[in-house]
Amino acid sequence: MRVLIRIMILGIAVIGAFITYLICAKILACISVFFAIVGISLFVYAYIENSGKDKLGGAMSTIASFIVIFMPIDDPKDKTIQLAFKFADERIEGLKEEIYLRDKTIEVLKEELARKDLPTWEQVVRDYLEKGKLQEAIESIDTNVSDEEAAQKHIRKAQLYITNFQFTEAEQHYKQAVAVFPSYDNNFAIAAFYYRLNKLSEAITYYNHCLSLVTLPQERAAVLHDMGCIQYKNNAYREAEASYKGSLKIGRELASKNRDAYLPSVARILNNLGVLHYSKNEYSEAEAFLKEALKIRRELVPKSRDAYLPDVAMNLNNLGELYRSKNEYSSAEAFYKEALEIQKELASKNQDAYLPDVALILNNLGALYYNKNEYSEAEVFFVKTLKIRRELASKNQDAYLPDVALILNNLGALYCCKNEYSTSEAFYKEALKIRRELASKSRDAYLPDVAQTLVNLSMFYQDDAPNKKLSLQYAREAMEVLGKCNHTPTVQEYLDDAKRVIEAWN
After folding, report:
1. Contact status, residue 329 vs residue 317, Cβ threshold 8 Å
2. Using one digit for the tens of pLDDT, what is the confidence trace for 78-106?
3. Superfamily of the domain at 94-213
4. Secondary structure (3-state) at 407
5. Alpha helices in 73-196 (DSSP H)
6. CA 392, 398, 399, 403: dihedral to nearest 10 degrees?
7. What residues does each domain of the chain span?
8. pTM, entire model
């Protein structure tokens, strides 16, 4: 029987690889999918056959081991003046948010199902999960009831669907939970669900419901913080600042009574306020908030190094970005390098989780040396960044291909400054090709990036490798693309530069 199962797994892998080959006609992609499916399938099979382990803990650990956690807004926007070398803050990719949501849901499930006072129906769910039977666990929950636990059954079912990336089904059960029992907890659960999936208008609706239902200060602080994050994403900086500061005031009061429980939240709000003021070019305020956040996070590290060291690294990176924007390069370099050493340490223990952060800081160091006109040093860091990001994208294109395009765009700018025009042109065009592909799948998310590279190419053919026809072609296409984008300060800046290129030729 086991031999038969292994043959079936291998057959599925072969069929999956063959279909991938037919779709994308890339042999390397075919091989990658083949070994990925075989490896994961055999891993799962081996795990299922191992009956001597703690099944619940093992099942959850197995799932969680494939998760990469990405914090939502810990990295501030870059303010480099030169258009050809603008560095976007890391855009929260949909897939990364889904993975983050799934990971956090798994943590909640592990904690809640470990309780000893579970009702009978939840014991059944736990038993199925211990055996690795997720679908059976879902089906065991009868939500066609009107008992006191109906809402909780909908919530639990939604959580189980999330662990299987079935977000449509999860959404339906969250809505039903709120309909059955519109409590603060249930409204907050669906609000957080929408927030993580970047459905911001839906999230705000439910967070507003939460504000009318809060009974505890920590509840209000949590809602205000998340609303601040959404308002920041929507460029509503005044509203975001008010929300963050309301959350911070409550957080400080709570931390004065229980530092261990609430100080980490205070640090995060301070960091986010720093990012917000940085985005508004209010550097003094940004520096004060970021430094206070860093001070708290350094104090927390001795209590739990694994929990708080990543926050320290991100805080250091944010300060590096701030000082680079202020042209205080020696301070920026010191913060970046300390952040890099920490991220390398973290990646040595968990490469999948922290390698993207290593790449981020390498990229920022490259940007720093670029700003200092130290192009050889910048090239070293950019090339290292590109290597890591290509490696990551080979495993997960949806999550990491945007980062590949970003560094290709940066390398185009760098080689242009080094007068290596053919190399610069090649990098720009590869970046444009990738960004076009991304925009074809998610227009709103990636059209501004397409426009950025189009403008870069229009300027390249204007100033560096003069070609009136190509320069005007790219500038006009950029304007056409920007007309389809949501209007933001960055979009306006790209528009202005595209117009300048056209006016210069005319």
Report:
1. no
2. 332 233 333 333 333 455 677 778 877 88
3. Tetratricopeptide repeat domain (1.25.40.10)
4. helix
5. 94-113, 120-130, 134-139, 150-163, 167-180, 184-196
6. 70
7. 2-50, 94-213
8. 0.71
